[in-house]
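Incident log, structure service

09:12 report received: a user says their structure output differs between two submissions of the same chain.
09:20 pulled the input from the user's history:
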Amino acid sequence: MAQNDGILNLNRAICVAAGEAEKADQQPLALSKDEALMYGIYLNDYVKSLSQIQPSLIPRPTFDSYISSLKAKSRPPPTEPLVHIKITHTAINHVDLLYAHGVHQNNKSGLFVPPFTLGLEFGGIVLNVMQPSTTPSQKCHVKPGDKVWGGSIGTHAEELILPASAVHLLPSPKWSLHEMAALGAGTIPVSYGALTTIAGLKAGETILVHAAAGGLGVYAVQIARALGARVIGTVGSVHKVSVVEGLLRDPNTGEIPRGEGVVNYSKDGWEKEILAICNQVAKDGVDVVYDTVGLVTKSIRCTTFNGRIVVAGFAARTGTGAEKVDELEKVAVNRILLKQIKVLGYRFGETSRRLPQETIKMWKGLNEMLAREERVIKPVVYATYKGLDNVNEAMEALSQRKVYGKAVIEVCDEHEALREVQQRTDQSQKGGLARL
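09:34 re-ran on a clean worker, output below:
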């Protein structure tokens, strides 16, 4: 009920701004859309049920409103150009569930509290670029009409304004916006950074990828392969085994190479299966573990001496809904000592905030991998949902652990978006561009 009240209050405020307050009492959730409004998944409060997640009309972003929001939050003025994006595609992440239900660590730290627009990654087209007066000498790497992808808070919406550093050109013209959304600017960089920057994965090594059919996992498998490593993947259900096997099979023979394979970690004793696969190539364990689930203790049992375990998430916890959150995994440190294991944490967002140069280097390497003439990374799409109206359905499928790869939301048709951008660009050129 609090969610409905919040949306009602938001819509009433929008109507007042548009001079149509009287309509709010009659049709609070069915406002007519005009140029000042757009649809977005706006949460005025945390939700108890995913059915509460519905698109509502919210103010369309402007450069002035973006600057005003920074001032209202006592944040510094922009230090780089700002980019206005027409979003064509977005995608669902596990963290969306946590944010929506208010159980993520960022909810509790105050970084992500209502009201907010849900979503963390997008594919879209540049509408406009603004050079703030605080950054007169900086040149922007994108221009109106460019196809781009990126990551930011609030991407489950029709438009978005964000700093230029969060916006990336497509690695090559061969990639579509739908495909880039399936890779996810908040997904594939996490796996690439974890494997290259933190784990230091090398050719010839063996990596164990947990939740290998998930959004992070399917790209970790492919990145590891592109780096020349062997891959053993784990999955949590039988129907996801074939997804990972398809990524591992030799395209010429149809066979999975020796020393690689897929194991169901929902069965007891899966660690022995991992070791048996390693023994096929005379290895006594895996060199690297990529853990986004919370399986450090059991992973140590199948890690070789001096191995590395990279922890990047805890998807095995319950608590993605309104139920009680289980405690995090506790690890006996003597096991780390006995095998001289290195347990390394990787928090992608915090790395970007604290070590921006490291993130720039990571993006350079990832884009070079994606731009190869012969694709070494392929999008893995569970389903494409048409329109923001179906965000809750996609999130429900994810919460039930049905999704493999990515669930993509097509916010609008890419060709229609290009035409709209061209029309708005023409109008802006006729009327002159506003400047801050």
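09:41 both user submissions now match this output. Likely a transient worker issue. Closing.
09:42 reviewer note: The chain has three domains: 1-32, 34-186+376-431, 188-362. The domain at 34-186+376-431 is CATH 3.90.180.10 (Quinone Oxidoreductase; Chain A, domain 1).
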